[in-house]
């Protein structure tokens, strides 16, 4: 059979290994993967051929934790689904799982329709985690319908953000019980809301209002407390959980202990926590506000610990928690009070190249590990595998081609996001994404998004636990 697209001369990199190979694509799917040169007979004059010599041919990367439409802290995040998904493609990411974040009075169904209609503009494929703030009979009923009708198989709860998004223990128990029944994973922001609230009050009363006080208001112990709380409820209910943006040694150790005690629990770390540290929040001239997110950036020791934990197999996924708020006009709402700085550090475009620069190019991890943590593991945990997360016959032809020898600097000049700063400005970059392909179509090439806007679609997901994750999922 002939093929529509042939990627030749590159090294195909999957989570289970890498080898020189060519990839033949027919329509939206990968049709064959074969030794170099072995698929040349499948080309016709109509076949598009990409010469990937000296490049890494990876499964399209998956970002399992992004905020695009985000009404939050009296603000709305700057990206829409057009700009955020273009930024994702520029960074080699082809699938996004976005947090639906309704307010405490919103109905889940209304929120789902709102987010879905906005996401129709996405250039990437997508799914959602259903944020649960309200949990009454009506919400329960609507959640059941959304899961059944749209194959969305994960929820999101916040233990943090007192009075805005945080969930009561009664609701947490109920959400987990429902999740287990429906085959959904419960993802969670694990910081204790009340402890943060009290710490914030105390610091502000002492006149400590600058961005540098954000981290002391929510120290590692408060995050570890959240993890322990969440994991205890998982053990009691038997639900499957996933901790988002785990930032520090204390929280990882609490998660590992919980897993050893039988909690079915996955751990996510996000690119900002692996690449930036707390000292940035102390920059003069309110610059530190650019680096405010929750959980906060930690001391450099914690950053080093996260890399050790990654190498030791304690971390499952690397996401972004992309939450883009402008420095001017949004972050500066907290000039006199750090608790009013909208939380978030955008990194949807930079994630994979940050990992390549700081992890692969330094020898801390290898390319298959990068692929596993940035694509395959998320596909497995969130029921997208093997449609996504692997280069294999029958899988969607979602592919990122990475030139590992290119060097440069991260800069807002290259950014597709609308936000007015780049948190990684001027930092060295090793590697470049040369092509991003979504379901057989080249959507990003040499610095430009190509073709008509949009084209992404909602991808149905299998229930939690339907796909074995990997031998590393349990810690011994
Ligand atoms: O600072 C953060 N993480 N902002 C986005 C909302 C959240 O907590 O994920
Ligand atoms: Zn969060
Ligand atoms: Zn988040």
Q: Keywords, please?
A:
single chain; 476 residues; alpha/beta; eight-stranded parallel β-sheet; disordered C terminus; binds N-(aminocarbonyl)-beta-alanine
Q: Outline the low-pLDDT stretches.
A: 471-476
Q: Provide the spatial order of strands within the biggest beta sheet.
A: 8-11-12-13-14-15-16-17
What is bound: which ligands?
N-(aminocarbonyl)-beta-alanine, zinc ion
**Amino- and carboxy-terminal Cα gap:** 47 Å
Short description:
With 476 residues, the protein is of the alpha/beta class.
Kindly describe this structure.
This protein is an alpha/beta fold and 476 residues long. Helix content is 29%, strand content 23%. Helix 4 (169-182) crosses helix 7 (220-237) and helix 7 (220-237) runs parallel beside helix 8 (249-260). It is globular, with a radius of gyration of 21 Å. Residues 471-476 have low confidence and may be disordered. The structure holds N-(aminocarbonyl)-beta-alanine (URP) and zinc ion (ZN) (2 copies). One zinc ion binds next to loops. N-(aminocarbonyl)-beta-alanine binds next to loops.
């Amino acid at each position: 059979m002939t093929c529509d697209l042939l990627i030749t001369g590159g090294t195909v990199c999957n989570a289970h290994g890498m080898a020189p190979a060519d990839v033949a694509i027919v329509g939206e799917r990968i049709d064959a993967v074969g030794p170099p040169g072995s698929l040349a007979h499948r080309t016709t004059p109509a076949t598009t051929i990409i010469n990937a010599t000296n490049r890494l041919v990876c499964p399209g990367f998956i970002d399992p934790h992004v905020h695009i439409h985000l009404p939050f802290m009296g603000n709305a995040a700057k990206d829409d689904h057009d700009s955020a998904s273009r930024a994702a493609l520029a960074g080699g990411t082809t699938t996004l799982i976005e947090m639906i974040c309704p307010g405490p009075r919103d109905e889940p169904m209304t929120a789902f329709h709102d987010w879905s209609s906005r996401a129709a503009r996405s250039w990437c494929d997508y799914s959602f985690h259903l944020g649960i703030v309200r949990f009454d009979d009506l919400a329960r009923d609507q959640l059941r319908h959304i899961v059944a009708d749209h194959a969305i198989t994960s929820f999101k709860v916040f233990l943090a953000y007192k009075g805005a998004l945080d969930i009561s223990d009664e609701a947490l128990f109920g959400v987990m019980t429902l999740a287990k029944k429906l085959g959904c994973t419960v993802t969670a922001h694990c910081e204790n809301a009340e402890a943060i609230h009290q710490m914030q009050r105390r610091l502000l009363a002492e006149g400590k209002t600058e961005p540098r006080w954000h981290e002391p208001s929510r120290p590692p112990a408060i995050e570890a407390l959240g993890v322990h709380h969440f994991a205890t409820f998982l053990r009691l209910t038997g639900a499957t959980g996933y901790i988002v943006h785990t930032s520090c040694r204390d929280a990882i150790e609490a998660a590992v202990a919980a897993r050893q005690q039988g909690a079915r629990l996955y751990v996510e770390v996000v690119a900002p926590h692996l690449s930036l540290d707390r000292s940035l929040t102390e920059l003069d001239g309110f610059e530190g506000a650019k680096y405010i997110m929750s959980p906060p950036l930690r001391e450099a020791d914690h950053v080093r610990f996260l890399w050790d934990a990654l190498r030791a197999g304690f971390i499952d996924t690397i996401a972004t928690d992309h939450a883009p708020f402008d420095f001017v006009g949004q972050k500066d709402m907290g000039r006199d009070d750090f608790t009013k700085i909208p939380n978030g550090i955008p990194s949807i475009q930079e994630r994979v190249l940050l990992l390549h620069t700081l992890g692969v190019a330094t020898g801390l991890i290898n390319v298959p590990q990068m692929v596993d943590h940035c694509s395959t593991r998320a596909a497995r945990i969130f029921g997208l595998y093997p449609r996504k997360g692997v280069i294999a016959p029958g899988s969607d032809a979602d592919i990122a081609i990475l030139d590992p020898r290119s060097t440069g600097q991260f800069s807002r000049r290259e950014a597709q996001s609308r936000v007015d700063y780049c948190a990684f400005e001027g930092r060295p970059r090793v590697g470049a994404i040369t092509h991003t392909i979504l379901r057989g179509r080249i959507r990003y090439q040499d610095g430009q998004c190509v073709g008509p806007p949009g084209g992404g679609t909602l991808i149905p997901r299998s229930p939690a636990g339907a796909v074995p994750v990997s031998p590393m999922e349990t810690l011994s």
